[in-house]
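Hey, I was hoping to borrow your eyes for a little while. No rush at all, and the record is pasted right below:
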Amino acid sequence: MNAPLDPIPPLSPIGMTRRDAILRAAQQHARSRRTRRRVVRSSAAVCLITLIMGGIALLIRPHASAPAPAPAVALNPEPTPDRVPNPTPREHQENAPQAVAFDSFSFEAIQTNPTIEQRYALVERPDSVAQMSDDQLLRSLHDAGVDAGLATIGGRSVVILNDRFTTQR
């Protein structure tokens, strides 16, 4: 019962050579698939370990506290001079007035230009988009020398340009 129905005839030398070539190709393919599978698995493991280590590093890392706010007023203010001279070149330094420190403070109110707000305000411009009907659009494109058509696809109108037949002005 277990006997083969058709005995396999012996192969010719060309057939044996072909069978050996097919066997080598199949073994090479199986080897490359096995290698690729191993590389993918090890890469996935490395990525997973990297993610876990990164998460642990984020949890362990000490969180930086917010810096203390700077005081609104200096606690030990230094006296300031009324006038500080502009920096001068080295050859004129001996003639430059020296800065003098005073024991009192001087406060001065600076008034801003009242027109500065109007000069730097953003001005709303009217829309630069012209609204027109489909016929007006096609007419203006034709007048500009553009061969175009209008198609409505899915409820949206689309301008279709025909570059091959564009007229030159």
Q: What stands out?
A: The chain is about 35% helix and 5% strand.
